[in-house]
């Protein structure tokens, strides 16, 4: 009996010891996890080593992963500089760091610092490998505020850094005589004038309920169009430069549903009519108004962009998802019946390709931009960049009729709001307006769905 | 009267005897008590082989009898074992009578017309062993029926606390509105789920027409009869039981981690010549866990679900009474907790799903006169349920939809993430489970029953009148308090500065309240006359019954007058039976019942059934074979009906509506429009109930003193007149709406049976038992669109037959595709896509090649078997349950990997690591999963044998172990019985289906799984 008891007791004791050991172990374990080397996983007695980096080259915004040792675990105490610029560190895990290449990190040398409580470096390490920095064309946000909560939307005049958001940007137009003034129309929303000199955005009031387009005559006066639905109202008005574009005078011809206007270097005004489905020619000298040609479809918003030479113009058939070309007859001084140049009529889609094999989805404004690569080719030297609204992209139509995608739809996506590399990152949301700034060598994109103006430019 | 007469007789006789044998006789006295030491009055005491020498015990259990030495005294009393004691010369003999062990011949069965001896039953009736149902930890008895009761097939399709099983008697034999059985508790139609199993005295399942014809147009889908416990006279009997549960989910879907998910997504993109979804650097970031915002690795199941939940139940019942009145009172409480974790910061309310059930029951039996028994009963229940605001279905949709990198639990700046809105379905699971408020719902029920039983022996011997009245009120309410925080979604990419770009996907909603209720009241009235008489070898019985019932909705009935009209039923029923020497039985019964839902010409129906039995065991030429206790063959043939049309009220009435528009009888600008009227629903005046014509052939047996016993039944049922819409009437008929008619026909047949074997090995008492139910049905006629291909019709196939294409494996290469019939579902079929069989041989694969494949989701075979053993105080009971002949398709965003194309849908580990067709790596045409696609794949993602899974399983349903404390110990504590027990349920599951719990029958796994439960309890009898 006694023997038995002592056995049990011994067994109990050994259990006790085991339990004690387990508990101790538990605490040790905990301690290791909680504090360990300070700060957080960093061992000051050891050096910070960068073994390798991935990827080896890229530009601003590229994700960079650093592999090495003794990086610690504390995000707030890890600092990485690349090419002398502080890089955003997103994650750090002992043997790896994820950071984002900052702007203008041209030199590409990588330095890691672990900071103490006051933010002073405790230890530093340098990567042997140098990141090769490439200057890229990038999409950025130029003007306007992006609202994460859409109901916070504000519309106002103001300096570039506080000018609210812009709804419905439809058409950009530079003042041909003052390159610091860029106008845009916005259909039923307010038109604006962007003043690059004063860095200020003003309202531009036309007095129309829907302003579709602004163009300029050869005297430097502005022609703005009222997109109304009445057969007995004037559609196009001249805003005189002399009045500071505050006085308007109607062109005395009834015009319903004007979406596109253009003025030929010879001085005639051409305007498209939505319901009638035609393009008419108006002569300022004689006051004669006549049909230039019938559009193959009616009930289409036809936007028109003239080639700088005046030899031809592109007609962007919004609802029918394709682009036509009309050539100028220099003898009769009139544009001729158009023909399809890109996209399949009445078929929406997204596809790069030549002529009708390319697919578009609600294209809007386009702009001719001289391409230095074509110099010496003699013939046409301009590419046509246009906003493909519902494909959320800026696309290029080259002189041979090939359509390709220039910017947007980043990372296999469609719409969105993302800046950065033109094709791998950038996203637009229903871009409609586009302008090319010859002086500043950049594009402005009216990002109608994001209510802001985006900019495409090469990194300086 | 008789007593006095007997006493007088015995005195006289004793006097005679004493005169004869005066000198040798002695007088023996003593007290007769039961096991609880309570004296028994009226025990007959007699001397063996000395007819006429009897006496009875008095109120104190005392008796006194004269007997010669070395003679045997016999003590008999109803309900107790007969005892024989040989006397030498003692003068005082106290006797304790033991409770009677029921013999086969004495066993009674509760049937539609009252209690009946088992031996005389001619229909297919199963008596459920209520003890077997008690181990079930669920809140409803329905969950314990599958595998325990022959003739019942059941399926538990959700494990959420408070959800209950669906079950069918024998087979689904209709595609009409209702295939569920009629449940009668104490004679009235009441809810099975609200009764506490401990209050059940008897539970029988009536399966064939002879047992259910009495219920007329309500009996076609089988009937469950439950009677509740009543008080017994004598000492107060107190029973208590407490039980604590710990439950875990049986089987959770096992999902791949973030890195595996992303790699597979890239594989899916690349397999279809698209750019990979994640770049190399992003995969590295994910692998290293460097971006917890955009590339987290969340195990959502782990985030939201607990490892286990604790629940409990307890009950107490008290019964007792005296000679003139007896009572039974019981109360129970059950609390079942769910598996959702709760936000610890939330103190005001609980978001976890749970279920609480309170029941009470009072029943008093009063002997108003010697021949009049009045029973008054009142019972009720309160069932409370809690669920997170968005509801459990939404949560499980999100748990299956959120992949590990969809979003983190919380963004590093404190914003709460969500993939989208979709009425809450796309909120992240943690938000759904803890931040959307809660839904509190409850159901309560009060039932009153009054029962009068008057023996009318003064008219003719054996005649009894029974009157029953019931009044129930039921209501069900909910208060939903819903809210959600502001939810954000980070854009897929960081901006050039490496910062997150957010978009608010859901606006904040402050807590908002909504509520609803429904309720009904029911009234029942029944009169019944019973007649039972034995004259010599002839045994007669007859029953006549009148019943009426009404149910009316009391809340939320809207403005449609039809909703406020009570649903009434009325019926006459009767039964005549006769048996000769308990050997040949014949039984005729009928129901003549009506429902106010039908046109008056079709309102009442006559449902007769006839049955007979031959008890071979009672034949004289077998009387010598004493090992046969009972061997009975029975057969029944009859009709019953099913008047349940679902929500359709008064189909014989038409509805007239005013036309839209019309003609303006006035000048332009004035308005004097007249519009016509038209039938918006034509009347279907000939509509009536479904008719089930049932046949049943069965054998009941009991051998070797009930050591072996069991029953086997073969059934054959033809269901005609199934109510359905006539959707395919030709347009030439010119009807504006679709009328309905009783046109469908289904044939169902199958068998069910059970056996048990009892054996005592030393001190071990062993019982082995098993049961099986198998059924197969076939649609004979259904109003459906004609097809040139017979196999496209539902006719000739099972009700709810699974249909799809026949898969021939995966395409080997492009040559294989070129040389095979063209598959029309998709333009670019590639090697590794599913290849289908061209059933009709027309050279193309399309919907005309869909055929019946597999069986049905609901099982067609259910079985159960088990062993129980007891040794001294210990007892063990093991019960297995299984189903077969069940198949279902698996589909949905987790099975059709990446099919939504927007990252919705998690990926199962089984699929990630299984034998998958991979371009250039594993081009196995017999792989288990096809070539991946990112986005929809109309060729692969459709019902076919490729995705058909066998739903059969077998599981260790119950393991019940107990120890009854020794009497010597508990008697000191003034207890009668005390048992400590452990019960485990769903402990083991054997199945070929590995993705989630096979019993759920779920095609996509988006349901609350079933639980594995361990419970520990104590039951005490005072």
From TrEMBL, chain A:
SUPFAM superfamilies: 3-carboxy-cis,cis-mucoante lactonizing enzyme (SSF75011), E set domains (SSF81296). This is IPT/TIG domain-containing protein. Residues 46-134 form the IPT/TIG domain.
From TrEMBL, chain B:
It is found in: Cell outer membrane. It is a multi-pass membrane protein. GO terms for cellular component: cell outer membrane. InterPro entries: CarboxyPept-like_regulatory, Plug_dom, Plug_dom_sf, TonB-dep_OMP_SusC/RagA, TonB-dep_OMP_SusC/RagA_CS, TonB-dep_rcpt-like. This is TonB-linked outer membrane protein, SusC/RagA family. It comes from Arachidicoccus rhizosphaerae. It holds the Pfam family CarbopepD_reg_2. Its main location: membrane. Keywords: Cell outer membrane, Membrane, Signal, Transmembrane, Transmembrane beta strand, Transport. Residues 118-223 form the TonB-dependent receptor plug domain. NCBIfam families: OMP_RagA_SusC, SusC_RagA_signa. Belongs to the TonB-dependent receptor family. Residues 1-22 form the signal peptide. The keyword Nucleotide-binding does not apply.
């Amino acid at each position: 009996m006694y023997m038995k008891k002592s056995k049990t007791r011994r067994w109990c004791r050994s259990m006790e010891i085991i339990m004690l050991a387990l508990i101790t172990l538990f605490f040790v374990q905990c301690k290791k996890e909680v504090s360990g080397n300070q700060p957080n996983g960093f061992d000051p007695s050891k050096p910070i080593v960068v073994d390798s980096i991935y990827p080896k080259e890229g530009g601003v915004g590229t994700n960079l992963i650093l592999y090495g040792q003794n990086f610690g675990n504390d995000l707030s105490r890890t600092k990485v500089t690349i090419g002398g610029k502080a890089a955003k560190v997103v994650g750090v895990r002992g043997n790896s760091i994820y950071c984002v290449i900052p702007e203008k990190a041209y030199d590409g040398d990588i330095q890691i610092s672990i900071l103490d409580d006051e933010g002073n470096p405790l230890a530093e390490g340098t990567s042997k490998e140098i990141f090769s920095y490439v200057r890229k064309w990038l999409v950025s946000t130029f003007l306007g505020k992006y609202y994460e909560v859409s109901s916070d939307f504000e519309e106002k005049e103001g300096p570039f850094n506080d000018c609210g958001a812009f709804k419905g940007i439809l058409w950009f137009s530079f003042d041909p005589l003052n390159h610091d003034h860029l106008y845009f129309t916005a259909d039923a929303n307010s038109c604006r004038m962007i003043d690059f000199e004063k860095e200020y955005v003003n309202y531009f009031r036309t007095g129309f309920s829907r302003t579709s387009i602004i163009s300029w005559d050869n005297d430097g006066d502005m022609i703005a169009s009222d997109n109304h639905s009445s057969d007995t109202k004037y559609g196009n008005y001249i805003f005189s430069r002399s009045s500071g574009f505050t006085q308007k005078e109607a062109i005395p011809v009834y015009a319903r549903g004007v979406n596109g206007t253009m003025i030929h270097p010879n001085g005639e005004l051409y305007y498209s009519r939505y319901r009638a489905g035609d393009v008419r020619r108006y002569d300022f000298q004689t006051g004669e108004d006549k049909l230039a040609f019938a559009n193959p479809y009616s009930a289409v918003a036809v936007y028109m962009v003239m080639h700088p030479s005046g030899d031809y113009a592109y007609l962007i058939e919004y609802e029918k998802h394709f682009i036509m070309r009309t050539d100028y007859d220099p003898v009769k001084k009139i544009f001729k019946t158009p023909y399809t140049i890109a996209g399949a009529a009445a078929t929406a889609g997204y596809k790069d390709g030549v002529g009708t094999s390319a697919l578009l989805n609600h294209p809007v404004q386009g702009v001719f931009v001289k391409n230095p690569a074509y110099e010496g080719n003699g013939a046409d030297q301009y590419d046509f960049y246009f906003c493909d609204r519902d494909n959320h992209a800026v696309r290029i139509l080259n002189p041979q009729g090939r359509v390709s995608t220039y910017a947007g739809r980043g990372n296999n996506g469609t719409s969105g709001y993302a800046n950065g590399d033109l094709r791998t990152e950038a996203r637009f949301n229903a871009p409609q307006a586009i302008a090319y700034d010859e002086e500043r060598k950049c594009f402005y994109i009216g990002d109608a769905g994001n209510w802001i103006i985006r900019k495409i430019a090469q990194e300086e | 009267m008789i007593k006095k007469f007997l006493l007088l007789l015995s005195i006289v006789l004793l006097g005679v005897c004493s005169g004869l044998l005066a000198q040798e006789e002695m007088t023996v006295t003593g007290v007769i008590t039961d096991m609880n030491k309570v004296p028994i009055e009226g025990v007959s005491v007699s001397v063996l082989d000395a007819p006429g020498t009897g006496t009875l015990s008095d109120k104190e259990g005392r008796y006194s009898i004269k007997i010669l030495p070395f003679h045997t005294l016999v003590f008999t009393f109803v309900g107790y074992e007969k005892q024989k004691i040989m006397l030498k010369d003692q003068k005082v003999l106290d006797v304790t009578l033991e409770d009677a062990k029921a013999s086969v011949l004495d066993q009674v069965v509760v049937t539609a017309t009252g209690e009946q001896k088992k031996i005389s039953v001619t229909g297919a009736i199963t008596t459920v062993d209520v003890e077997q149902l008690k181990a079930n930890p669920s809140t409803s008895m329905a969950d314990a029926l599958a595998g325990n009761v022959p003739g019942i097939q059941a399926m538990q399709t959700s494990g959420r606390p408070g959800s209950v099983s669906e079950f069918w008697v024998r087979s689904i034999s209709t595609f009409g509105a209702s295939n569920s059985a009629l449940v009668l508790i104490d004679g009235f139609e009441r809810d099975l789920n609200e009764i506490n199993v401990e209050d059940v005295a008897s539970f029988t399942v009536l399966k064939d027409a002879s047992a259910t014809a009495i219920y007329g147009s309500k009996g076609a889908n089988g009937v469950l009869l439950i009677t509740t416990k009543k008080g017994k006279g004598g000492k107060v009997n107190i029973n208590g039981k407490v039980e604590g549960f710990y439950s875990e989910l049986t089987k959770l879907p096992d999902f791949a981690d973030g890195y595996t998910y992303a790699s597979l997504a890239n594989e899916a993109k690349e397999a279809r010549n698209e750019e990979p979804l994640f770049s190399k650097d992003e995969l590295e970031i994910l692998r290293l866990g460097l971006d917890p915002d955009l590339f987290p690795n969340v195990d959502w199941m782990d985030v939201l679900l607990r490892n286990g939940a604790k629940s409990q139940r307890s009950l107490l019942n008290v019964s007792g009474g005296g000679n003139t009145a007896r009572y039974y009172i019981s109360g129970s409480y059950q609390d079942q907790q769910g598996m959702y974790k709760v936000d610890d910061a939330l103190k005001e309310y609980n978001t976890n799903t749970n279920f609480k059930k309170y029941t009470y029951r009072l029943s008093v039996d009063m002997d108003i006169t010697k021949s009049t028994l009045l029973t008054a009963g009142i019972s009720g229940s309160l069932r409370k349920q809690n669920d997170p605001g968005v509801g459990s279905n939404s949560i499980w949709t999100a748990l299956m939809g959120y992949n590990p990198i969809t979003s983190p639990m919380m963004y590093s700046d404190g914003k709460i993430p969500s993939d989208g809105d979709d009425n809450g379905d796309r909120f992240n699971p943690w938000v759904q489970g803890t931040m959307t408020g809660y839904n509190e719902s409850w159901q309560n029920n009060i039932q009153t029953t009054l029962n009068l039983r008057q023996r009318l022996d003064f008219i003719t011997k054996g005649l009894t009148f029974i009157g029953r009245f019931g009044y129930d009120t039921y209501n069900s309410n909910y208060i939903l308090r819903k809210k959600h925080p502001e939810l954000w979604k980070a854009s897929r990419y960081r901006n050039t500065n490496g910062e997150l770009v957010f978009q608010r996907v859901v606006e904040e909603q402050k807590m908002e309240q909504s509520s609803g209720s429904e309720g009904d009241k029911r009234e029942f009235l029944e009169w019944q006359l019973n007649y039972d008489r034995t004259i010599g070898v002839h045994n007669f019985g007859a029953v006549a019954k009148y019943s009426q019932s009404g149910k009316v909705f009391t809340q939320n009935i809207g403005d449609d007058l039809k909703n406020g009209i009570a649903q009434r039923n009325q019926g006459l029923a009767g039964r005549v039976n006769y048996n000769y020497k308990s050997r040949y039985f014949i039984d005729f019964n009928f129901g003549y019942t009506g429902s106010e839902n039908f046109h008056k010409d079709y309102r009442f129906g006559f449902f007769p059934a006839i049955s007979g039995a031959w008890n071979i065991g009672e034949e004289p030429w077998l009387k010598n074979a004493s090992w046969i206790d009972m061997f009975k063959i029975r057969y029944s043939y009859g009709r019953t009906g099913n008047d349940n049309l679902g929500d359709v009220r008064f189909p014989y009435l038409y509805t007239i509506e005013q036309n839209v528009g019309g003609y303006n009888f006035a000048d332009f600008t004035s308005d004097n429009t007249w519009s016509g009227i038209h039938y918006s629903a034509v009347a279907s005046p000939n509509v009536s109930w479904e008719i089930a014509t049932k046949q049943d052939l069965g054998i009941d047996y009991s051998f070797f003193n009930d050591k072996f016993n069991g029953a086997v039944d073969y059934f054959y049922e033809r269901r005609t007149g199934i109510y359905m819409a006539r959707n395919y009437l030709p347009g030439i008929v010119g009807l504006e709406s679709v009328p309905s008619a009783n046109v469908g026909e289904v044939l169902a047949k199958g068998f069910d049976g059970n056996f048990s074997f009892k054996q005592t090995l030393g001190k071990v008492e062993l019982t082995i038992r098993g049961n099986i139910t198998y059924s197969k049905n076939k649609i004979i006629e259904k109003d459906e669109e004609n097809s040139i291909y017979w196999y496209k019709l539902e006719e000739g196939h099972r009700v709810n037959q699974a249909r799809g294409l026949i898969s021939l494996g995966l395409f080997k290469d492009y040559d294989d595709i070129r040389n095979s019939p063209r598959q029309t579902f998709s333009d670019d079929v590639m090697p590794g896509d599913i290849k289908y069989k061209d059933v009709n041989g027309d050279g193309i694969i399309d919907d005309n090649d869909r055929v019946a494949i597999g069986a049905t989701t609901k099982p067609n075979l259910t079985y159960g078997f088990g062993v129980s053993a007891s040794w001294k105080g210990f007892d063990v009971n093991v019960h297995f349950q299984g189903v077969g002949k069940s198949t279902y398709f698996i589909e949905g965003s987790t099975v059709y990997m990446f099919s939504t194309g927007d990252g919705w849908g998690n990926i199962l580990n089984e699929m990630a690591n299984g034998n998958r067709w991979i371009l250039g790596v594993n081009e196995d045409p017999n792989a288990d999963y096809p070539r991946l696609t990112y986005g929809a794949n109309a060729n692969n993602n459709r019902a076919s044998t490729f995705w058909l899974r066998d739903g059969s399983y077998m599981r260790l349903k119950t393991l019940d172990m107990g120890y009854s404390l020794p009497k010597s110990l508990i008697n000191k504590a003034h207890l009668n019985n005390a048992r400590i027990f452990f019960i485990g349920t769903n402990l083991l599951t054997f199945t070929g289906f590995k993705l989630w719990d096979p019993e759920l029958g779920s095609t996509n796994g988006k349901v609350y799984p079933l639980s594995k439960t361990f419970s520990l309890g104590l039951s005490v009898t005072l």
